Amino acid sequence: MNTQNNKSLAPDATSISKTLSYLLRHAPQTIGLQLDPEGWADIGELIAGAARDGHRLDRATIETVCATSDKQRFALSDDRRRIRAVQGHSTSAVQRRYPAAQPPERLYHGTATRFLDSIRAQGLKPGARHHVHLSPDIRTALAVGTRYGVPVILEIDAQRMQRQGHTFFVAENGVWLTDAVPADCLTPIDPPAC
Ligand code: HQG
After folding, report:
1. Radius of gyration of the chain (CA)
2. pTM of the model
């Protein structure tokens, strides 16, 4: 794993969140962790596997990171023995079945200007993840786009997509998911003035 620069230091919450995202969304196999198709991992196995890889995790810290995650990325099972990432997976071990949901008329996707030509030609594709990720608000989309460089916000016509037969899902943390966004259902819009 390359999610921490110095494993011997006590990791901060952001670093732990990144480690959990990496293990629970993308690469559980790197520590021999089993995820079930709905994404659940046994917390004891997660702690033991991470420890073998030199990462100090404990139950209380994991629970704190889950509770305080700005995007509520993780969920604990009712009995608090299991944890999962609620969206964002790329690992084939997970095939979450989200219930279909009625989206708002408009959804937003933040990306970088350098991807625009390709997106205009192909629409939005899920890439390595299982879904295209959309947000109900422009501010979140702007933050996502800024991660990649000069941001651009795409406004998604969710009703038009539904008329074309696309289905929407919403994860427990309010992130909207769909299979792909056709080019004729997205429009670049100006970012809001800060
Ligand atoms: C782009 C974060 C060229 C797409 C966020 C994006 C999100 C294309 C990148 C979650 C394309 C994929 C997911 C095309 C899509 N041509 N580029 N045809 N179609 N792209 O990371 O949505 O903080 O897989 O625009 O908040 O950026 O990690 O998806 O730039 O909810 O919890 O290809 O990750 O959450 O990148 O981010 P990603 P995303 P966390």
Report:
1. 18
2. 0.92
